[in-house]
Amino acid sequence: MAHVTIIGTVTARPGTRDELLALLDAQVAPTRAEPGCLNYDFHVDAGDPCCFVFYENWRTQGDLDAHLAMPHLAPLFSQLDRLLARPVEIRHLTMLSDMAGLA
Fold it and tell me: Using one digit for the tens of pLDDT, what is the confidence trace for 40-92?
C-alpha cells in the first residue's frame, strides 16, 4: 500500500499571522515524533507571509487520521475560526516516484 501524501494550506487573518505562526511551528516536533509520520515539513509562501503550507507523508491513512486526533493539535484547532482568513485547504496527492531517502 502506498503512503499518504497531503499538502495543507493555512492562511492567517490580518493581524493574526504571528500567533498562527507560533501555533503552527509548535506542531512540527511532536508531529514528526508520531508513529507513521514519514515527513512533516512546514513552509511559508514566498509571496504571501500569511500563507503557510505543510507537506506531509504518512505511512497509512490510519496514521494521518490518528495525527488529526492528537491532543497537541487542540490549541490550534480551537482557534482556527478566529485565526484563519479561510478554511484549511487540504490536497491529497498520489506520489508517482519513490520517496527520496526511502527507496
Answer: 999 999 999 999 999 999 999 999 999 999 999 998 899 999 999 999 999 99
Cite the DSSP H helix spans in 1-103. 17-25, 28-32, 61-68, 74-77, 80-83
CA dist 89 → 10, 55, 84, 100 (Å):
7, 12, 11, 25
Contacts of 83 (CB under 8 A, 6+ apart): 12, 13, 16, 19, 20, 23
Residue 102 has pLDDT above 70, yes or no: no
